[in-house]
Design goal:
- There is one protein chain.
- The protein is built from 2 helices and 11 strands.
- By secondary structure, it is α+β, with helices and mostly antiparallel strands.
- It has 2 domains: 2-45, no CATH class; 49-125, CPE0013-like (CPE0013-like fold), CATH 3.10.530.
- It has a 5-stranded mixed sheet with strand order 9-6-7-11-10.
- The model has no long low-confidence stretch (mean pLDDT 90).
Length: 130
């Protein structure tokens, strides 16, 4: 028996997962909706996470921060995955993110790595920097 707290909605149901026949036949109790059951099964079989990190900007540059108009000495741009990544693949993904070099300007939503390792998600910029 395994216990999880569901994070799909604000209720935070306490889930109990019974795996009597291994990972193929999981029984979930404690969920108040079907999304809790789906979350528990995926979390046990193949946990995924949205990954956030930063990517290097080529050279040390003074850039305009579009959020408040100030000039900053910018070294890195924040990035995230467009959809969750298998938890076991996160170290390799972070290695690749830390290798990329970004030219300015970069816009929020720009794809910096497309379809990473054929995993059907992109690494995108989460901030506009000019």
């Amino acid at each position: 028996m395994r216990n999880l707290t569901c994070i799909v909605c604000p209720i935070g149901c306490s889930l109990e997962i019974e795996d009597s026949n291994g990972l193929q036949n999981l029984s979930v109790t404690g969920n108040k909706c079907s999304r809790g059951k789906e979350y528990a099964i995926e979390e046990i079989r193949a946990p995924k996470r949205t990954v956030t990190a930063t990517a290097q900007i080529i050279g040390i540059q003074t850039a305009a921060d579009t959020n408040n108009g100030a000039e900053l000495s910018i070294h890195r741009v924040p990035v995230k995955t467009s959809s969750p990544c298998l938890r076991e693949k996160i170290p390799a993904l972070l290695e690749d993110i830390y290798k990329i070099k970004v030219n300015l300007p970069v816009k929020m939503g720009d794809v910096l790595i497309s379809n990473w390792n054929n995993e059907n998600f992109d690494v995108i910029a989460t901030r506009t920097i000019k």
